[in-house]
Write a structure and sequence with these properties.
The protein is of the alpha+beta class. The chain has helices at residues 3-16, 60-63; strands spanning 23-25, 43-46, 49-52, 79-81. The strands form 2 sheets. It has a two-stranded antiparallel ribbon. The chain has a two-stranded antiparallel sheet with strand order 2-3. The structure holds iron/sulfur cluster. The site of iron/sulfur cluster has 13 residues, from loops. Iron/sulfur cluster binds next to loops.
Length: 83
């Protein structure tokens, strides 16, 4: 699967499916998932820390990332999944 199709899949599944209960951790604001395929226009990088300028109304694909281990593309990421 190429990067664009990964992003399309992530956008589609996030509309209906929940975050896997096996997910643990917290976002470290690295911004990697905000720059995947294209740089999000709402991303503000300050001193190597990613700030979402629409954080309160961000779309499900951002709100739920990484929704599952299979959909997690970026590592290291503050989130991981327990077995
Ligand atoms: S890749 Fe992970 S740690 Fe980095 S901004 Fe996205 S969710 Fe947060």
């Amino acid at each position: 699967m190429n990067h664009l199709s990964e992003k399309v899949k992530r956008a589609a599944t996030s509309l209906l499916l929940p975050v896997d209960k096996a997910r643990i951790g917290n976002c470290k604001n690295c911004g990697a998932c905000c720059m995947f395929v294209y740089r999000c226009p709402f991303l503000n990088l300050e001193k190597h820390r990613a700030i979402c300028t629409i954080h309160r109304i961000r779309p499900p694909m951002c709100r739920k990332y990484p929704r599952t281990k299979a959909e997690q593309i970026h590592k290291p990421c503050g989130y991981s999944f327990i077995n």
